[in-house]
Design goal:
The structure is a single chain. This protein is globular. It is built from 13 helices and 14 strands. The chain is α/β, with parallel strands linked by helices. 37% of the residues lie in helices and 19% in strands. The longest helix has 15 residues. It has a ten-stranded mixed β-sheet. Strands 1-2 form a two-stranded parallel sheet. The chain binds S-adenosyl-L-homocysteine. S-adenosyl-L-homocysteine binds next to strand 10 and strand 12.
Length: 357
């Protein structure tokens, strides 16, 4: 996009209220804003010229004031095993993010990124290796979905914020994205079908709880003792397990929603009988679900596990009265682990031109 467009207002990041204010400020009728909002979020028409029930004069104005912060499919990997599709998108400033579209028996679910890179530094995560660049705008999170839906010719029925980035470290934009995603005059997806995953930024968990949104909160726990968790997740040195669990209890109490704890099972790190004891003791009595993930191999790291090790850990937990499921691995043939594609794209050239939409 040219420098000229960068000064324009990113229309896909505006709520309907904000758009109404601008449109009314242009001496236009308020209902025009809703028409435009629906062109964008329902009909997915991003070219103002094609908004046929808007006057030619207003369309001209829209072109002058607003831009559509588009993203482009730079690379697309399709799993031959299970129809999972992984997109590497190029943003308007040349940065990259990843999005994964997954097919389940009940429909399509999509995993979106919330930042270019991540500051959190989890030891087992590929996003940490590539480093943090910037936050994504609401429009850039939303367009990951709109573009994938267009490309695949499907509508997604579930969204997970589990791609690159820490959603609660880009709080305001993520909240705005959620309100756009679920707006009844727009995309209209119930937040009951949305999961937000966090490494545990405690003050933001309280803030989110107070908003009483109907989404599912996933907490990346990965270890039930402070020493071990601090080694693999530096965020634990700032907000330790006690503080995190206290915030989780508050969240459950104030939203009435159950929390999912994510636990990447890693050989020799967090999957011994002692680890199961600690985890069971920590979560006893909490309205939650435990999701065990066989750790995805990241080539710079030596962490590993097998599906059977994750299943064995689930058995150990069951014996201690904690129900856990082992997450189905999708897209295992297309490097579906967080951040791997972006890291490779960045290191291979800051990618060579091409693939323009
Ligand atoms: N920052 C957020 C969301 C992005 S990561 C968070 O930490 O929750 C999404 C999930 O994938 C998290 O549970 C994260 O810990 C996990 N994850 C990252 N790298 C992984 C890997 N190599 N193997 C298994 N899970 C991984």
């Amino acid at each position: 996009m040219s420098g000229d467009t960068l000064e324009k207002i990113d229309i896909l990041s505006l709520t309907l209220d904000e758009l109404e204010q601008i449109i009314v400020g242009m001496d236009e009728k308020k209902f025009r804003a809703k028409q435009i909002f629906q062109w964008l979020h329902v009909k997915r028409v991003f070219d103002f010229e094609k908004m046929t029930d808007i006057s030619a004069q207003l369309r001209l104005h829209l072109n002058k004031i607003f831009c559509v912060n588009g993203l482009f499919v730079q690379k697309k990997l399709e799993s031959s095993i299970d129809n999972t599709v992984k997109y590497l998108y190029r943003l308007s400033d040349g940065n990259f993010v990843e999005t994964v579209l997954m097919e389940y028996s009940y429909g399509y679910s999509i995993c979106v990124s919330t930042q270019v890179g991540c500051k959190m530094g989890c030891r087992f995560c590929a996003s940490a290796i590539a480093g943090y660049v910037r936050d994504l705008a609401p429009s850039e999170i939303l367009m990951q979905i709109y573009e994938a839906e267009k490309d695949a010719g499907v509508r997604v029925s579930g969204v997970v914020l589990m791609g690159i980035g820490e959603p609660l470290d880009n709080f305001d934009n993520v909240i705005k994205f959620l309100s756009l995603l679920s707006h009844k005059d727009g995309n209209n997806l119930s937040l009951r079908h949305v999961s937000l995953s966090t490494c545990g930024i405690v003050p933001k968990i309280y803030e989110l709880a107070d908003m009483k949104l109907q989404l599912t909160l996933s907490v990346s726990l990965h270890c039930a003792d402070n020493k071990g968790r601090s080694e693999i997740m530096p965020v634990n040195r700032v907000y330790d397990i006690d503080e995190l669990i206290k915030a989780c209890r508050y969240y459950i109490e104030h939203t009435g929603r159950r929390i999912t704890f994510e636990y990447a099972v890693i050989d020799d790190v967090n999957s011994s009988a002692k680890d199961a004891d600690r985890l069971a003791a920590l979560l006893r009595g909490i309205n939650c679900h435990v999701n065990l993930i066989p750790v995805n191999k990241v080539k710079e790291r030596s962490y590993h596990t097998s599906r059977s090790a994750a299943a064995a850990f689930a058995d150990q937990l069951a014996k201690r009265g904690i129900n856990a499921t082992v997450r189905r691995t999708l897209g295992s043939d297309i490097e579906a682990a967080c951040g791997q594609l972006r890291r490779d794209a960045d290191s291979h050239n800051k990618i060579k031109g091409g693939a323009e939409a």
